[in-house]
UniProtKB/TrEMBL annotation:
Lineage of the species this protein comes from: Bacteria, Pseudomonadati, Bacteroidota, Flavobacteriia, Flavobacteriales
A GO molecular-function annotation: sequence-specific DNA binding
Name of the protein this chain belongs to: AraC-type DNA-binding protein
UniProt xrefs under PROSITE patterns: HTH_ARAC_FAMILY_2 (PS01124)
Organism listed in the record: Sinomicrobium oceani
Domain of life, per lineage: Bacteria
Keywords: DNA-binding, Transcription, Transcription regulation
Occurrences of domain HTH araC/xylS-type (ranges): 191-289
Presence of keyword Transmembrane helix: no
Length: 291
């Protein structure tokens, strides 16, 4: 077993003048970085992919999604994923940092788009044929601009990116069970909550801890989470713990007992019961099925 590699945006592409943005066709990208993208890995940037040809599977945090012509995938920083795809697979891919978008659009956050409200939201979209034509034109325009050297190149890419995200948001809200609109204040609060959970989930598993950190009541925090994600605060905490448990069980060299301890559980039997309650299988059964 191995640790999960974290890929940085500067490792991709030849245009070192733009370490905050990268674009390519999927075929060229996969040809250059095939080994890196077909084993489980993470990014420290946002990823968007449109497939125009081929088929396969995209696994994101232990959930599998079909790759087919017209499928779009949104990748959040920190998610673990890998691709399996046929030789004829092609399309467009681009990466960008959070700062690249928010530097140009200071009046809003990248998380104002519904697919980036939360890491809990569905990471894929399967547009209709008419919708796909509009998306393909925008993806192609970004790729063409990136390959060129025209005046104000990156500013134009930023504008096309914003148009693409707006177009995708309209389609996404029409096809996924994301509340529309989620109040902007709730979106910001969910981001704060997820950031806090990311920081403290090993040692702090009680919703009251996070409510106190956010200066709200536990009841109000739960109401915001339910409105935004149709889950409870306890669900978010537990899901983050279980996700990390899965990652460690599959990718780390630690024993099951060491994994439990790393997640804040001194009693492995108790950890195993929690894991089975949330997943339906024991840690050893999960590893066996995944492998």
């Amino acid at each position: 077993m191995r640790t999960i590699q974290v890929l940085h945006i500067g490792e991709f592409g030849k245009q070192k003048d733009y370490p905050y943005f990268y674009s390519n066709t999927f075929k060229a990208h996969s040809g250059s970085f095939h080994e890196a993208i077909t084993i489980p890995h993470k990014h420290d940037f946002f990823v968007l992919v449109l497939f125009t040809k081929g088929h396969g599977t995209h696994e994101i945090d232990f959930h599998s999604y079909p790759i087919r012509p017209g499928s779009v995938f949104f990748m959040y920083p920190g998610q673990t994923h890998h691709w399996e795809f046929s030789e004829d697979t092609d399309g467009y891919v681009f990466f960008h940092t959070q700062e690249f978008y928010e530097f140009q659009y200071t009046d809003r956050s990248i998380h104002s788009f519904p697919f980036y409200y939360s890491a809990q939201n569905p990471p894929c979209l399967y547009p209709e044929k008419a919708e796909l034509k509009r998306l393909t034109d925008l993806f192609s325009g970004i790729y063409t601009e990136y390959r060129g050297a025209d005046f104000m190149k990156m500013q134009r890419i930023g504008s096309l990116l914003d148009l693409l995200y707006i177009e995708l948001s309209r389609m996404y809200l029409g096809k996924n069970t994301v509340e529309s609109p989620v109040p902007a204040v709730y979106t910001r609060k969910i981001r704060i909550l997820e950031t806090l959970i990311e920081r403290y989930y090993v040692s702090e598993k009680a919703p009251s801890f996070y409510a106190e950190k956010m200066h709200v009541s536990a009841k109000h925090l739960n109401r915001m989470v339910k409105t935004s994600l149709r889950k409870t605060t306890s669900d978010l905490i537990a899901e983050r713990v279980i996700l990390e448990a899965k990652r460690l069980l599959v990718h780390s060299p630690h024993s099951f007992t060491e994994t439990a301890r790393e997640l804040g559980y001194e009693d492995y039997a108790y950890f195993s019961r929690i894991f089975k309650q949330k997943t339906g299988v024991t840690p050893s059964e999960f590893v066996g099925r995944y492998q």
